[in-house]
Amino acid sequence: MTTPSNTSAASATPYGTLPPSSTPSTRKPLSLPRLREMHAQGEKITMLTAYDATFAAVADAAGVECILVGDSLGMVCQGLTSTVGVTLETMRHHTECVANGLRRSQATAWLIGDLPFGMYHESNEQALRSAAVLMQAGAHMVKLEGGGWTADTVRFLVERGIPVCAHLGLTPQTVHALGGYRVQGKGDEAAATLRRHAHELQDAGAAMVVLEMVPAALSATLTQELTHCPTIGIGAGKGTAGQVLVLHDMLGMNLGKMPKFVRNFMDGPDNRSASVRGAMEAYVRAVKDGSFPVDAVHAW
Ligand code: KIV
User: Fold this and answer.
1) How many angstroms separate the alpha carbon of residue 74 from the centre of ligand 1?
2) From the CB of 59, is ligand 1 less than 6 Å away?
3) Mutation probe of ligand 1 site: the residue of 48, 168, 234, 248 with most atoms within 8 A of C-beta
4) How far is 164 from 33, CA to CA, in rounded Å?
5) 89 carries an active-site annotation
6) pLDDT tens digits for 134-159?
7) Helix, strand, coil percent content, the chain, rounded in steps of 5
8) The pTM is what?
9) What confidence tens digit (pLDDT) does each residue in 72-85 have?
10) Distance in angstroms (rounded) separating the CA atoms of residues 92 and 89
């Protein structure tokens, strides 16, 4: 008798698959339509950074919907003083590590790869080549920083089938031009520019926009206005469509002064098992039920 070799649920994936090393998830895999559905239904979207297979798999198992392989890895993994020195090859490597981890576990998370400094600034073609490197390493979406000139790049990538997450407000790759890690969009003129950039990015097809260190009132207004593009806040108040934190920050692994917008989820009664997975689950619960962030504590 011949036994069909592909009878597991995993075999439903076309173009080849890896055998799952743990029980397949009952959760639906994240996809752009699913993210749009969550946005339309007002369900908060959770995102964390991860840079390796194991942390990514644990975040996935904890219910984190989006995993960002952020170029913050330059600071938290490589010990650089900013994200400016991160190369495309480093981003490719870590994106591949995370993609491997997700594939080997429950593989429901949406994986975003950060385009590093200088790798999308020159031309749309350069952006496409860089994005292709991250997509081929396993990313489902790429993220790029900045407004104004980036709208054309976003449109170019989206038209070629690459989902894009934009990033406005404090854009760490331009920290030297901004004069430090400070709140952006304060004052009428700066707020109007940020707002215009956000609308341009939505019109260009960006499927998400990270708002970093933006006054809570402005990001809440933008969240209402951007009906096709969920806002993901970090230091942008509770009014955004979702939240993101840097993994090491939310695990309390920050030896310096903790940024105002971070909560240490390793600490406190919410982390029921006092474990990394418990911290991530507490983060997911707190974002979903609106108890994190607290505007009076974590925002401007
Ligand atoms: O690189 C990163 O981790 C990021 C987040 C802070 C949004 O861009």
Assistant:
1) 11
2) no
3) 234
4) 14
5) no
6) 999 999 999 999 999 999 999 999 99
7) 40, 15, 45
8) 0.92
9) 999 999 999 999 99
10) 5
